[in-house]
């Protein structure tokens, strides 16, 4: 069997993201089989290829914890385009997957796409027929008929939600996704659109086959209902209160931060009140809430919510809200893998893991902007660019 060894000045290794200097990793059959503390230890031989990345930093392949394959905020009227036909949306998905992979995202968690596009693309990627991140999928996102969720489909009553949950499971999804609130609320009372009975029906169906649940939930009563119903992961949490931070922590649930919708003014002004002052007020409230969640120590992943090639920027925003570089990096690698239940196969540079790797110009533990300077991407040991 051929052996590939990659040397780099800095390699961020293990589940605790430890910086190793002048080390090397050995790759066989797509997996990391050995880590050398010092490049002088590496063997040589005819069947061994050595790549020297020089002064670059090697990190685990990044994981986008909140993706939608066919939702692409880079194009105009991107929300309206969620009503495009299946072919059009699939073509878009193929492009976003390829783009994200080249930006260093080797795994992505999909929070709902129409027509089971994520389920189909997951299979095709696994079989090597298309290029893109490995996918963790939820199939059809489920929302109430009067609720928010451009990428979701409408259902009403526990039995309708249950039926769709079962159909998603039949298609082989990895988890179930529901929508509880709007994105940016802009009112003092945060609307919530699903009843506790509907939530419980979905959680029950997920648990009966050993999978998890995620809910698009900004805050308010809906967030309490999600925790009480047993939802495993809360997406966005823009308006999470101090009390709710404690509640999420005590219940040992995950959160996924998607900060651009509040911190990137272009997106914020698109989604919150039309007047600028109103939007800036929302931004202030959201930043305070997210800072509270971060300082409260909630376990988190970071996602783009359809801002393809934008994961590095989301990571930088989370650091600006108070998270350490180490925690931010964990939120797009090792902790993200735990959240996605793929930490036994990817998410860290550890022996036995898939060789999903990104070489950066710069060390993200010192400077997170290095995440934007992707020099090379490897997925299952194969060089992508
Ligand atoms: Zn989303």
Distance between the termini: 24 Å
Say how many strands there are.
18
* CATH architecture annotation of the largest domain: Alpha-Beta Barrel
Helix-strand sequence: EEEEEEHEHEEEHEHEHEHEHHHEHHHEEE
- Based on CA inertia axes, which overall geometry fits? globular
CATH homologous superfamily identity of the largest domain: Metal-dependent hydrolases
Number of helices: 12
Estimated structural class: alpha/beta
Helix content: 25-40%
Attached small molecules: zinc ion
Question: In words, what does this structure look like?
Answer:
The protein has 385 residues and is of the alpha/beta class. The chain has helices spanning 86-102, 117-126, 157-170, 196-208, 220-229, 242-250, 260-263, 265-271, 276-295, 311-320, 325-331, 334-339; strands spanning 3-13, 18-28, 31-36, 48-52, 57-60, 62-67, 105-110, 134-136, 142-144, 153-155, 175-179, 212-219, 233-239, 254-257, 300-302, 357-360, 374-379, 382-383. It folds into 2 domains: 3-60 and 347-383, Urease, subunit C, domain 1 (Roll); 62-339, Alpha-Beta Barrel (TIM Barrel). The longest helix has 20 residues, at 276-295. The radius of gyration is 21 Å and the shape is globular. The mean pLDDT is 96. The chain binds zinc ion (ZN). Zinc ion (ZN) is lined by residues 66, 68, 111, 216, 305.
């Amino acid at each position: 069997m051929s052996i590939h060894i990659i040397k780099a000045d800095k390699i961020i290794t293990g589940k605790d993201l430890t910086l190793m200097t002048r080390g090397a990793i050995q790759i066989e059959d797509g997996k990391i089989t050995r880590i050398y503390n010092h490049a002088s230890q590496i063997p040589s031989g005819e069947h061994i290829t050595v790549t020297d990345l020089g002064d670059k930093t090697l990190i685990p392949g990044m994981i986008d914890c909140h993706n939608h394959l066919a939702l692409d905020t880079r194009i105009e009227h991107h929300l309206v385009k969620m009503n495009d036909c299946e072919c059009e949306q699939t073509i878009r998905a193929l492009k976003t997957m390829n783009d994200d992979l080249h930006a260093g995202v080797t795994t992505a968690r999909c929070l709902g796409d129409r027509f089971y596009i994520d389920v189909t693309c997951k299979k095709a990627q696994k079989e090597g027929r298309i290029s893109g991140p490995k996918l963790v999928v939820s199939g059809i996102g489920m929302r109430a008929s009067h609720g928010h969720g451009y990428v979701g489909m409408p259902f009403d009553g526990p039995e309708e939600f249950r039926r769709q949950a079962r159909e998603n499971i039949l298609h082989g999804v990895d988890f179930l996704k529901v929508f509880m609130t709007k994105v940016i609320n802009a009112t003092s009372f945060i609307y919530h659109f699903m009843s506790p009975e509907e939530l419980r029906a979905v959680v029950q169906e997920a648990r009966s086959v050993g999978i998890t649940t995620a809910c698009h939930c900004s805050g308010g009563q809906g967030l309490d209902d999600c925790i009480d119903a047993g939802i495993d992961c809360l997406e966005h949490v823009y308006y999470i209160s101090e009390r709710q931070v404690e509640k999420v922590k005590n219940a040992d649930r995950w959160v996924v931060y998607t900060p651009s919708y509040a911190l990137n003014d272009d997106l914020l002004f698109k989604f919150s009140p039309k007047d600028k002052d109103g939007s800036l007020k929302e931004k202030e409230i959201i930043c305070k809430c997210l800072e509270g969640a971060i300082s409260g120590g909630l376990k988190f992943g970071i996602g783009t919510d359809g801002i393809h090639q934008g994961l590095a920027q989301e990571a930088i925003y989370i650091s600006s809200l108070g998270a350490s570089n180490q925690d931010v990096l964990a939120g797009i690698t090792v902790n993200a893998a735990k959240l996605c239940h793929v930490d036994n196969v990817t998410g860290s540079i550890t022996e036995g893991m898939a060789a999903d790797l990104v070489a950066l110009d710069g060390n993200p533990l010192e400077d997170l902007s290095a995440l934007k300077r992707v020099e090379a991407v490897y997925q299952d040991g194969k060089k992508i660019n």
